[in-house]
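Sample pair:
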Amino acid sequence: MSRPPALPVSSLASALGELARAQQRAGRSAMLGLALLGLVALASPLLAYHEDLSNAREEMLGHLSNQAHVQADALGVHLGLLEAELRRLAEHPQLSPEHGPSILEKAVLDRALHHSPLFSEGVALLTPSGDRVWSDPPQMSLGESSLNTRPWFRRVMTDGVSDISLLEGNDGPLVVAVPIMRGGQVRGLLVGELRAGARPLPGVQSGGADMVLLMDENDQLLLPAPLPRFMWTRERASLVRALATAPGPLVLGGSRMLGAAALVPMPEGISGMVLAVLENEERDIARLRRRFLGQLLFHVALLGSTLLIFTFLLRRSYHSLIAAEERLRHQETMAALGSASQLIAHEVKNALNGIQAALSLLRPAASAGEVALPALRAQVQRLGHLARSLLSFGAPRPAHRRTCELRLLVEEALQSVRLLPEAEDVPVAVALAEGLMVQADPALLVSAIDNLLRNAVEAGAVARDTGLRPSPWVRVSLAREAGEAVLTVEDNAGGVDPDLEPRLWEPFATARAKGVGLGLPMARAAVEAHGGSLTYARLPEGSRFCLRLPLESSA
């Protein structure tokens, strides 16, 4: 086989030099591609990081919105209960403050409101001119300025409706003012005071929030009082009110906050109150940012080390190729054109295969670096916000049972019911069997029986006032039936509204203007916690509630 003609040494050197330059260009292109591949791989965790922060902020806003609604509902129900209690007392016929204090008035008020836990600062009875007739405690503060100059006092006297506002100016306790109406005119006021943050006031400074704000319809900041460090203005009030429709960021006192707001459901005549729940965005987001940045740095380190390894391997292959070319230049100076061409073609092919093999190893790194989205989980339990809402009903305490005589528990409940103003107009007939021993928590069971008796007496009073029953009555009997103690409470007040009867045991189901709808559900829950039952039956003239508990011997 004939050899191809020889190639001059200068031509061979020129060809090898051109090949070396081509290899260098290919090496630079490979390094540039590797760098672009690293940037693409790093962009993935960066985008995921920003998406995770956005999702975390949205989740926090959703949590704040739920918390604001739960707390607003709880505060509305609580303030509504306080207003309803004062309004119920204001309807008592013995209250006539315009004639000055009387023994009967003081007796009624002492019996209903003396050391009442409903109002943390106290309760006062005022004349239309703002003079104090009675208060508990006697030294209860009514502010320094004249009551006639207070906006809430003038609104109650002019419109004859209840009002909830601050006692005086921008400081002091929250007041619930209820007019005493006689003959279509305001004859006096009942005023209860609540200190901001006091225990009986739910929905304020609860649920883990940094700040809870409460505004009235005139954008006056009611809670917290005294005012926070920042200046309260109309512009800030508008921004806070806007959180009810669009939760989002807000700057207060130099701090960037995330907040949500909700309208507080209030009694008729009181509207426009807004409760806002705010949390420090920088503090809460900073924890997420540190966590996400830690994950991002881990992926950057992983990708960087991978790129360094591939760069090292590529550079070593490149230098090995250059060394082989140098050896070839010295060995094949006088080779023929065929031999030189074959050798050069073989070496170039080897170099290209090495580069392609290195690039093929880099392809799986394109999908590396996914940042897992961490989940944010708290509370509350809210709700709480939430719920916390009628707080005690949603999380009842467990029963602590001991041996009790049921007759004594019924008599204890009767004693508290006889103190009601309605008890004077509704006679209660009692027939209680003795010796019926049960395993029960006295506090829970007395509360359940008290709810039944209270409902019957109040229903009888309403039936008498409306003319439905000129002579209302309530009958309470306790007897033994087949190993059970059976307590029956009957009345002739007309019975439960038929439309309400299917929802009688549901929370907040009530047809009474003064009712909230929690008594019967709480009573049934307490009885069932003792292994008993509570049922309702309609009578021709009224209602019958039957409470059954297993006797201690049968248990």
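Confidence is low (pLDDT under 50) at residues 1-7, 334-349, 351-356, 362-395.
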